[in-house]
Amino acid sequence: MANACNRRTFLKSAAAFAAWGAVCKAQGLNVSAGLYAAPRPKKPGVVRGAFFYPPEQVVLDGKCEDGWSKERWFTWPGNQYKPEEQQAKFMARLNAMAKGLDIELAIDAAPVYTDAAIQGFITDIAASKPDALILFNFWNSFSAKIAPILDAYQGPIILYHPVGSNHQLPPARFRTAKRVQYIHSVEHWEALERGLRAVHAKVRMRQSRLLRVSGRLETEADAREVFFDMPIHGIPADHFNALFDETAVTPEMRRLARKIRSDARRVTDLQEEAFLDAVRAHATVLKIMERHDADAITIECLFLKHRKPCLSFALNNGALVPCGCENDLNASLTLMLGANLFGCGGFQHNPEFDTERNLYLGSHCTCTNRLHGPDAKAVPYRLRPFFHQLPKTLALDVVWPQGASVTLCKYHSGENRIDAWAGKVVESPECPPVGGCATRVLVELAGVKDVCETYPGPHPILYCLDGARQLKTFAQLYELDLRTNG
């Protein structure tokens, strides 16, 4: 399926283009050589919003629609809060946040303070169907007036209620409402950005396309992931194998192979043929994604022998082109979600447990060395063969930074749930004494009494960042059950 625009030249998202270009530059590659996939353009999501407070003169004239109007009383936040100035400050922050996200803010310039205006707002969102709402309640007695909006809109709502704009306990309706991120705090910009980034990620996921390469398919097939409303296209593994076999080694591939070798701290038991097969597999992955207009790919890769795409998946995940091993749907969707939520690639792995020290081990063969994002400094890696099958194909043995924050997560398709566990890196143990696969990382999960109870099933994703609260916000806005310590 061909894209209507040239995906290698027209990029709607400046952030995606920057990430793509940064990795190309780091590997010393010519972007026209076909060894990196440019991101597919996405249509920005619309976030509709309003600020709720009465202008000062309305209160002084006794016309504020609340129980204090006869006394011309300024309920909390009082008559020195300067809500217009606060609105301007919040708008400046919101606009700065939105620049790096695929969202458009459609927020009323004038404050809303009458029941009629609220009904007009409800009518407008019913007609325009925005992707999310963002509401700012600057007036204590307006909490009840806002409630009809929560009843009318069935999508995600970010509701910001500054401390001091409420009297006594925050409204239970706000604190417990489904699909509502209720922020009751003092200029908590990080929480606001978490909400906007969650909307950004969901909007991008809905417009994404996952390619599944399966040895069990004889013909191409289509499916759809319900929660993300995402198309999934399946093709037989023979299509990948045939494309690999017809892919000749080019000078640019040799250049990439030399770069991968020269950047490694150590190379163990790998011949030149392993490097050339690895870059051929990388070119094949990108060609087949281009052919099927895919944002992400997962391949039933265990028994591909010399065609295994371990290097390709490491490079692509680092460039925010999600690639999942073993045709694992949940792992691939989690990699896609993380790329959009966090702006960095994750490590699909299999779990193991050190029960004496209550530590979690993740190990697999496709870890990116760009753990902190495409434009951040890469971490060291060694090169060694894939652990489980001959011939000896190339895989990265990535050294995770000791003490770094990590997030262990997994989205479970069809179950409306997600895991999000916060922890820190203990070490990247050598092999031997620790087995598993090419990359190994030991993690301590915070406050977990029995680490085995966190087991999320095969192939969760580990991110080198503190992202549990971001996933918690996503789960709250989109009604996912959450297992977390964050």
Question: Can you give me a brief rundown of this structure?
Answer:
The protein has 486 residues and is an alpha/beta fold.
Count of individual domains: 2
Structural class estimated from helices and strands: alpha/beta
The percent range for helix content is: 25-40%
Low-confidence stretches: 1-17, 28-32
User: Total strand count, please?
Assistant: 20
Named at the architecture level, the CATH assignment of the largest domain is Alpha-Beta Barrel
The whole-number mean of residue pLDDT values reads 93
CATH topology of the largest domain: L-fucose Isomerase, Chain A, domain 3
The oligomerization state is single chain
CA distance, first residue to last residue:
41 Å
Q: Main beta sheet, described? A: 8 strands, mixed
Instruction: Categorize the overall geometry.
Output: elongated
Radius of gyration: 25 Å
Description:
There is one protein chain. The chain has helices spanning 14-26, 56-60, 83-98, 115-128, 143-152, 172-176, 189-206, 237-245, 251-263, 272-291, 310-318, 329-342, 468-477; strands at 45-52, 103-107, 132-137, 157-160, 180-183, 210-214, 221-225, 230-236, 296-299, 323-325, 347-348, 350-354, 359-364, 381-385, 394-398, 405-412, 417-427, 439-445, 461-463, 481-484. Helix content is 32%, strand content 22%. Mean pLDDT is 93; it is low at 1-17 and 28-32. It is elongated, with a radius of gyration of 25 Å. The chain has 486 residues and is α/β, with parallel strands linked by helices. The protein is built from 13 helices and 20 strands. Strands 11, 12, 13, 16, 17, 18, 19 and 20 form an eight-stranded mixed beta sheet that branches. Helix 3 (83-98) crosses helix 7, helix 8 (237-245) crosses helix 10 (272-291) and helix 9 (251-263) packs across helix 10. A hairpin with an 8-residue loop joins strand 14 and strand 15 (394-398). It has two domains: 45-203, Dehydroquinase, class II (Rossmann fold, 3-Layer(aba) Sandwich), CATH 3.40.50.9100; 208-484, Alpha-Beta Barrel (L-fucose Isomerase, Chain A, domain 3), CATH 3.20.14.
